[in-house]
Amino acid sequence: MLGLNDFYTPEQYGGGKKAEGYLLKAIKLNDQSVSNPYLPGWGKNTAYEMLIRLYINHKLFAEAKKYYQEAIALFPDDYMINKLANELINH
Questions:
Q1: Which of 90, 69, 55 is nearest to 81 (CA)?
Q2: What sign results for the dihedral spanned by CA atoms 12, 21, 80, 34?
Q3: At a CB cut-off of 8 Å and minimum separation 6, what does 5 contact?
Q4: Contact 23, 3 (CB under 8 A)
């Protein structure tokens, strides 16, 4: 949540300085151990999506592609991650 909060906070209000670190930490955390499909996950797919968006926004396409490949391998059916492919095709 800290990464998402910093990602969406405008720069003039101090945002965007810590998002990368928070999101990198989030994707390294252990997977959810609850096997019940009706319980919510903690959002590792969202952390990947936001990290990729952050790199695209800063025109760091090599990093964006690296984490896109990781994300798509882990979450092949995630709509938002798949949608990012269009932004990476020509870079």
A1: 69
A2: negative
A3: 15
A4: yes
pLDDT tens-place string over residues 17-59: 899 999 999 999 877 666 776 666 678 999 999 999 999 999 9
Alpha-carbon distance 83 to 81, whole Å?
Answer: 5
Q: What are phi and psi of 42, to 5 degrees?
A: -90, 0
Full domain range(s) for residue 73: 2-88
Tokens 């492919």 belong to residue = 85
Residue of 76, 90, 18, 11 whose CA lies nearest to 45:
76
Number of domains in the chain: 1
Q: Is the pTM of this model over 0.70?
A: yes
